[in-house]
């Protein structure tokens, strides 16, 4: 991949976040939520109560809020709002650029990462003259990659899925005779503080949680992810992540002394994502769904998983959640590898992408390299890919049937 392409997304930084609040003076609880036809990316759960809609709107406003220096942005950051990378709760336009030293094979991370003392993430903007983190100039064997902000809609359904369901699917895959063999990413709860006891009682250092969020399933819950994104992408500290990340100037704070947002803010943003509906499906070619199963897409993109009976949002408790993922890590081979390790996820493994709201994406895979759904499917292939058999089955279909399958995926 061209390294120049990696930087294309950055100049869009200042284009986001204005306008989402324009309906706020209105007393109608649905004001400010754009309604275009009946196909929306950013709407609350069907049947949401007035209180849930109010909570949704509060979190949506915070999600779109563009932080300034005086709000605690930085010292280093990538974008100034969540919406900058998840516009309309959907994909992009913002992305995170990554760098890692790799062995000659271009896939295995090098044992010595001393040349990148501040980690793998580029943070191209700083406030108050702070030294930013970009690609080092030395002639290093660096592998560059990008992660395009994924959609965040339907994530409440994903958080609600019962652990036992994910364990069941992992066991079923382990018993298969073919290459498909997903693994759970067992992760640690990193937050210093539990955001909301109603959702879970994890506390800092708890291990063995099932990672669900992030392209490599590195985080277990939406509040932990929110605090992580505030800190890592925006330089916004919170009681869950009270420290600024290490940076070249050794800065431990920014223009706003101490923690930049409170627990309530983290909770409100997490609740907004929990309350986001799965976008409406489009009508699709009726043959597509059966072909999706026949080509083994459904082995990884599991159409439905049962949610916990005790999930605090009633609409999401004890239902079949149409998430089209197994939350498991799969080795898709060296072509998609990024050289990065997230908890127990290797360079070549990725969490099965949830096929949710596909009509709201214009590019696919973690870095957006696929411009069409067909390209995304073909790029699952490669030496050692667990999905090679499924791609072969797809290729073997007559063109009309391939199109019906693609049409079904696009309709989700
Ligand atoms: C600079 C771009 C950027 C910003 C700003 C950003 N994100 Fe993200 N977001 C990403 C990327 C890239 C990923 C995938 C991360 C990974 O693989 O670890 C992601 C993943 C997520 C996920 C997991 C989705 C899934 O299905 O795995 C959630 C939830 C999320 N972000 C919420 C937020 C919230 C809330 C904020 C603001 C506090 C925010 N993000 C700010 C780029 C961004
Ligand atoms: C072995 C498990 C596995 C199988 C089988 C599989 N996939 Fe995937 N799929 C994945 C993983 C993992 C990703 C994420 C890859 C990435 O982000 O780079 C993915 C990503 C995708 C995406 C991109 C989604 C997005 O939002 O970017 C589409 C579309 C997709 N798969 C469709 C299919 C179809 C159709 C089939 C059957 C022909 C299929 N997959 C078979 C594991 C699988």
Descriptive notes:
This protein is α+β, with helices and mostly antiparallel strands and 412 residues long. It has ten helices and ten strands. It has a two-stranded antiparallel sheet with strand order 1-3. Strands 2-4 form a two-stranded antiparallel ribbon. It has a two-stranded antiparallel sheet with strand order 5-6. The relative contact order is 0.16. One heme C binds at residues 180, 215, 295-297, 299-301, 330, 332, 336, 350, 352-353, 361, 364-366, 373, 376-377, 380, 386-387, 390, 394, 409.
Secondary structure topology:
Blueprint: H1 50-64, E1 76-77, E2 95-101, E3 125-126, E4 142-148, H2 155-160, H3 163-174, E5 186-187, E6 209-210, H4 222-234, H5 263-274, H6 287-294, H7 297-300, E7 305-306, E8 320-321, E9 329-331, E10 349-351, H8 373-378, H9 388-396, H10 399-411
Antiparallel strand pairs: 1-3, 2-4, 5-6, 7-8, 9-10
Helix pairs in contact: 1-5, 4-5, 6-10
Task: Describe what is shown at a glance.
The protein contains ten helices and ten strands. The chain has 412 residues and is α+β, with helices and mostly antiparallel strands.
């Amino acid at each position: 991949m061209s390294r120049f392409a990696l930087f294309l997304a950055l100049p869009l930084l200042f284009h986001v976040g204005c306008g989402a609040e324009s309906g706020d003076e209105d007393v109608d609880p649905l004001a400010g939520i754009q309604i275009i036809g009946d196909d929306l990316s950013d709407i609350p759960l069907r049947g949401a109560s007035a209180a849930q809609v109010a909570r949704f709107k509060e979190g949506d406003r915070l999600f779109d809020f563009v932080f300034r220096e005086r709000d605690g942005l930085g010292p280093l950051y990538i974008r100034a709002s969540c919406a900058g990378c998840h516009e309309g709760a959907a994909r992009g336009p913002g992305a995170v650029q990554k760098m890692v030293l790799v062995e000659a094979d271009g896939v295995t991370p090098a044992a010595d990462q001393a040349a990148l003392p501040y980690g793998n993430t580029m943070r191209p903007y700083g406030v108050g003259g702070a030294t930013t983190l970009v690609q080092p100039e030395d002639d290093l064997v660096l592998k560059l990659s990008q992660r395009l902000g994924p959609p965040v809609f339907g994530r409440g359904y994903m958080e609600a899925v019962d652990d036992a369901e994910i364990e069941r699917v992992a066991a079923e895959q382990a018993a298969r005779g073919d290459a498909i063999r997903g693994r759970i990413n067992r992760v640690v709860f990193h937050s210093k503080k539990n955001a909301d006891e109603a959702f879970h009682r994890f506390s800092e250092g708890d291990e063995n949680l099932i990672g669900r969020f992030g392209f490599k399933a590195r985080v277990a819950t939406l509040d932990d992810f929110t605090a992580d994104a505030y800190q890592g992408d925006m330089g916004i500290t919170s009681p869950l992540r009270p420290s600024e990340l290490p940076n070249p100037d050794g800065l431990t704070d920014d223009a706003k002394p101490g923690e930049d947002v409170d627990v309530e803010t983290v909770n409100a943003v997490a609740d907004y994502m929990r309350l986001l509906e799965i976008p409406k499906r489009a009508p699709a070619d009726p043959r597509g769904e059966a072909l999706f199963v026949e080509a083994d897409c459904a082995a990884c993109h599991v159409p439905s998983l049962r949610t916990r009976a005790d999930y605090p949002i009633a609409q999401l408790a004890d239902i079949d959640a149409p998430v089209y993922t197994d939350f498991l890590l799969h080795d898709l081979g060296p072509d998609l590898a990024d050289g990065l390790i997230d908890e127990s996820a290797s360079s070549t493994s990725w969490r099965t992408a949830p096929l949710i709201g596909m009509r709201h994406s214009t590019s696919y895979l973690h870095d957006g390299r696929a411009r069409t759904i067909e390209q995304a499917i073909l790029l699952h292939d490669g030496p050692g890919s667990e999905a090679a058999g499924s791609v072969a089955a797809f290729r073997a279909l007559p063109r009309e049937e391939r199109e019906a399958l693609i049409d079904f995926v696009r309709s989700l």
